[in-house]
Design brief:
Two copies of one chain form a homodimer. Chain A is of the alpha/beta class and 147 residues long. The first copy, chain A, has one domain: CBS-domain (Roll). Chain A has eight helices and six strands. In chain A, the strands form two sheets. A three-stranded mixed β-sheet of chain A has the order 1-2-3. A three-stranded mixed β-sheet of chain A has the order 4-5-6. In chain A, helix 1 runs antiparallel to helix 2. The model of chain A has no long low-confidence stretch (mean pLDDT 88). At the A-B interface, helix 1, helix 2, helix 4, helix 5 and helix 7 of A face helix 1, helix 2, helix 4, helix 5 and helix 7 of B.
Chain lengths: 147, 147
């Protein structure tokens, strides 16, 4: 079994799409994360669901739990509406990290190790910069435990 | 809106359950992760789905992508069956990390920041060491984007 045998087609977002649109797509399609494409439709980044959420959390709250606690409840509930038309590109953190991207010949063990290491429940399968589809944690685990 | 308003009941596993049982539960119930309880039924740890998968990936492959690639395909497909009765406790990494645990009064912003920071799509809501339930990424995002 190789990555090519585990591929599913998932909807993608463009790097200049609004964050709110990305968040809605993830919820509506019940996706574990999102593949973000650049203008050439090549994967620009892959975001685990928690990192799509992160795009929508104000920076001043992300690393300071006490700040998020003291903000009054009404304001906290409104934070996603304050995003306006902020794009995914502008909301992305700068730090480089290993992307969960692999090729169609990757073994199941290789995909599993990549998912575990990058903490991403979605891996993009790419061949010569062309996106073939995604392997999701659910698809991989289902095949592994044989249910 | 507080954590208490977002709680869902999720199945849990015991820290001395076999890893394979934990993996099956996650797949069968389509959970984003697992809450692991100790003997007193207090949360011992919370594992995002990718870290449940990690329990099942041989240690020598986790941080060495080239090793996972060279292992022959037949063996790679069998790795989950080699787990035997390895328990969650024995498979857990030792390194301490911030757990995605909060109290019922946490604001939605606080839960969102915790999920983003710990990269966990599941947060345990605990009151005086008693598990009240879980807030999942899907529940939180659904409420936030209002679909």
């Amino acid at each position: 079994m190789r990555a090519r045998d585990l591929i599913t087609q998932v909807p993608t977002v463009m790097v200049d799409s609004p964050v709110i649109e990305a968040a809605r797509l993830m919820v509506e399609r019940d996706l574990p994360g999102l593949i973000v494409l650049d203008e050439r439709r090549t994967p620009f980044t892959i975001l685990p669901g928690t990192q799509v959420l992160r795009l929508a959390v104000p920076g001043y709250c992300q690393d300071d739990p006490t700040l998020a606690r003291v903000i009054d409840e009404a304001h906290a509930d409104e934070f996603i509406h304050a995003l306006g038309d902020l794009t995914v590109r502008r909301a992305l953190p700068d730090q480089p990290r290993e992307l969960p991207v692999t090729d169609p010949d990757a073994t199941v063990l290789e995909v599993a190790a990549l998912m575990a290491r990058t903490r991403s429940p979605i891996v993009a399968v790419v061949d010569s910069e062309r996106l073939l589809g995604a392997v999701t944690l659910n698809t991989l685990m289902t095949r592994l435990v044989g249910t």
